[in-house]
Amino acid sequence: MINLLSSNNKIIINSDIDGVLSGLILHNFMQCEIVGFSNSDNTVWIDHSKVNSIYDAVYIDMYVPNPEVKCIDQHIVSLNLNHHNSTFQNANKLNPNFDNPRFHLPNESYYLKYPFGTVHYILAYLEKQGIKIEIDYFKQVNNLNFIDLLLRADDAMYTTVSSNYKTNAREWWLWLHAFSQKATSITTLGKYVYSLNPSKVLEIKTNTTKLLTASMFNCESPDGGYRSILDPNGLLKPNIVKYFEWLALGAGLKCFDTNLNLIPHIGSVNRTSLNLVQQNELIQENKINGQELFSYAFVRSFQRPDNFSYTIM
User: At 88, is the pLDDT very low, low, confident or very high (cuts 50, 70, 90)?
Assistant: First the structure.
């Protein structure tokens, strides 16, 4: 990860709690500069005084298949083993499903995919590389521990304790612990989450959702995310700035610069199930129906309809 960011420390982060926390970690411990945001759907916002185009920064918590674009994410993006073997060779792409290989096909592999947030992978990777992460995990923020917010990213707490994928979650906690070389961050997260019972997890999740979606922050999704982030002047909305600053304060970290002049770049989002011709086109050309993909992920198992989500810019 250090090598990935050493030549380009300008990052574009997702506008949800996983992306924001990832951005705060990378800003504080890798001196990364946030130059834009994405909503994991149809829009990327960038400050053109900092980067020229949407292809000039490192994407955090979103996969961009352009081989020249660097990204750190945790989605299933390999169709199968052959696709994985070609994608994994690109040092510009970091993803736990590359390190501990998981694919869309066969279904058995998809069901064993990485189940946590990009921020948890980043913590493990940085500590693996000798970066000391100093966070006040148990600082009280609005009657929650900061660690509760950290484990809200991609619903890691609920998945670990209360979901049907508890066994897979446990295997991935063990993997993260070993991958990070027994990092303090992963050890702390693991010990805490396994100290909770399902009723406590439900209580924490309910309280977190109420807090994030209340008028103070007015998040548009229960996982602390926004689809639209700008006011009429092209600046971040005040409630969003407050949200970013509050998360930074809760972690005991410095907030990144929020005084950005952001320009939206809007594409089209599609959901489909790939036929054999499209599967080959994806593997060989990063295209679907002749159109170059800006971003994509397999979001459901193979037997479910519309399991492939992609964005054309």
Answer: confident
Rounded to the nearest integer, the mean pLDDT of the chain is 95
- The pTM of this model reads 0.96
Rounded Cα distance between 22 and 286, Å, is 26
How far is it, in rounded angstroms, from Cα 101 to Cα 149? 28
195 — pLDDT class (breaks 50, 70, 90): very high
The confidence score (pLDDT) of residue 65 equals 95
Strand 287-288 relative to strand 291-292, pairing: antiparallel
Mean pLDDT calculated for residue range 73-98: 93
Q: Which helix (H) or strand (E) holds 157?
A: helix 156-161
Question: Are the C-beta atoms of 47 and 261 separated by less than 8 Å?
Answer: yes
For 198-206, the CB contacts below 8 A with 24+ separation are: 198/161, 198/162, 201/157, 201/158, 201/161, 201/162, 202/158, 202/162, 204/144, 204/148, 204/157, 205/152, 205/155, 205/157, 205/158
Instruction: From 117, 252, 135, 123, select the one nearest 183 (Cα to Cα).
Output: 123
CB 237 within 8 A of CB 227: no
Cα–Cα distances in Å, from 197 out to 122, 128, 156, 189, 201?
Answer: 26, 30, 14, 15, 6
* Comparison of pLDDT for 7 and 44, the residue scoring more: 44
Distance set, CA 53 to CA 44, 69, 155, 288 (Å): 10, 11, 32, 23
pLDDT tier at 55, thresholds 50, 70, 90: very high
Nearest CA to 300 out of 278, 269, 268, 274 is that of 274
- The beta strands (E) that lie in 101-240 are given as 140-141, 144-145
Phi, psi of 273 (to 5 degrees): -115, 130
Rounded-to-integer distance, Cα 74 and Cα 138, Å: 26
Q: 47, 262 in Cβ contact below 8 A?
A: yes
